[in-house]
Design a protein that fits this description.
Layout lengths: L4 H5 L4 H14 L5 E2 L11 H12 L12 H15 L8 E4 L2 H12 L5 E6 L4 H8 L3 E6 L10 H7 L4 E7 L11 H14 L2 E5 L20 H5 L1 E6 L12 E4 L2 H14 L5 H12 L3 H21 L15 E2 L9 E3 L2 E3 L2 H12 L1 E2 L1 E2 L9 E4 L4 H16 L1
Parallel strand pairs: 1-12, 3-4, 3-5, 5-6, 6-7
Antiparallel strand pairs: 2-8, 7-8, 9-14, 10-11, 13-14
Helix pairs in contact: 3-11, 4-11, 5-6, 5-10, 12-14, 13-14
Length: about 400
């Protein structure tokens, strides 16, 4: 059967791939500890689940408007205004089947063949693939751990070409947990203004910020920047609702309308029941978010301190999200248990097969020499996993 070049050229998601392999090994009876998963280990809060039951009992099991129910759009508007002071109208929102779907809608609405999008590496694995699927090209600007993974404005400027149409900002970031500071955001906004570029700001981790820090969206800088910015968010990370698949984009009205039209042809509405659950998440008590965030912060502190005790590993303390992104380059070029380890992928495969620890190689994020380790797991699993990591690297 014929396979399109488009499909043939897109690699599978490395994060999903490692998690899948770990689950397969677990089904075979092996005790695999997963540091690869990119989702909360907490159960969805009970009041949100109850809202789903009530939605079914009320008969909310039919099609909704393709871009989402009005009540949920209004709740997104209210929550954003209350938390960060940004004001939008409900008709600027398109509710989608998760943040990934919202991003796909953005690329389909924004990009023509050959258009370029500046992406900061380390980047979430799906950004370049999504852009490519929509006919565009991701132009990577590397960031450095020594600078807290903040991009160099001079390098951003040099990456702009006549084909550039957008800059993608992910702050707080996956996989590094980095937060772009105000000066960095101002520089990016200035470059976008100088070149009439769209800014896409993926803020899916904005409620998982530690050490008392406050979220700063690039759209908060000034009205001109806000007018050229498309926000992406959702309930997956903040409310432990990854499987419910509800996310959204917020954009100028015309863009949001066009994105909704594309979605109407692709998938139509997101799950009606999940939309009512998301409505309960946004309008109900928020103490569940704070409680999960506090536990993540405690896990982060323990994990970072213990990881730094291992020889040949350097690790920043991430200010947000639930990932560590340690530099493991000192262990590349080694022979471990008779295996030559030259890349982060080879090291991740070795740790999975020999140490029964699931991680994600930095190469999947455009950053060779690193591993991504999720601390969305229990402290007990972190302790056990660290001991296995220590043993595996000492062989």
């Amino acid at each position: 059967m014929k396979i399109s070049q488009r499909a043939d050229n897109i690699p599978p998601s490395a994060t999903v791939g490692m998690a899948t392999r770990a689950k397969q090994m677990s089904r075979q009876g092996l005790d695999v500890i997963s540091f690869a998963v990119g989702e909360p280990d907490f159960a969805t809060p009970e009041h949100i689940c109850q809202a789903a039951y009530q939605a079914m009992e009320a008969g909310h099991t039919k099609y909704t408007a393709a871009s989402g129910i009005p009540e949920l759009k209004e709740a997104v508007v209210a929550r954003l205004r209350a938390e960060v002071g940004l004001s939008y109208d409900a008709d600027q929102i398109c509710i989608s089947s998760g943040g990934k779907h919202a991003l796909t809608n953005i690329w389909q609405t924004l990009l023509d063949e050959g258009d370029e999008v500046i992406v900061f590496a380390p980047y979430w694995v799906s950004y370049p693939a999504q852009i490519q699927l929509s006919g565009g090209r991701a132009v990577t600007v590397m960031t450095d751990a020594s600078r807290g993974f903040q991009p160099d404005p001079a390098e951003v400027r040099s990456a702009v070409t006549p084909q550039t149409v957008a800059i993608l900002v992910n702050s707080p970031a996956n996989p590094t947990g980095a937060i772009f500071g105000q000066e960095t955001l101002q520089e990016i906004a200035a470059i976008a203004a100088e070149n009439d570029l769209t800014i896409i700001s993926d803020e899916i981790y904005r409620n998982l910020i530690f050490d008392g820090r406050q979220h700063l969206s690039i759209a908060m800088l000034d009205e001109e920047t806000k007018a050229r910015t498309i926000l992406v968010d959702g309930v997956s990370k903040s409310y432990a609702m990854t499987g419910w698949r509800i996310g959204w984009l917020i954009a100028p009205k015309d863009f949001a309308t066009k994105a909704g039209s594309i979605q109407s042809q692709e998938t139509h509405n997101p799950c009606s029941i999940a939309q009512y659950a998301a409505l309960a998440a946004l309008t109900g008590p928020q103490d569940c978010v704070a409680a999960m965030r506090d536990q993540y912060e405690q896990r982060r502190d323990f994990f970072v301190e213990a990881l730094r005790q291992l020889e040949g590993i350097e690790c920043n303390t991430p200010p947000a999200a639930f990932y560590l992104f340690p530099d493991i380059s000192a262990h590349l070029g080694r022979s471990l248990a008779g295996q030559q380890i030259d890349t982060s992928l080879q090291l991740a495969e070795y740790l999975l097969e020999q140490g029964l620890i699931s991680t994600v190689p930095g190469s999947a994020f455009g950053a060779e020499g690193f591993l991504r380790l999720s601390f969305a797991c229990s402290v007990e699993d972190i302790k056990r996993g660290l001991q296995r990591l220590k043993t595996a690297l000492e062989i």
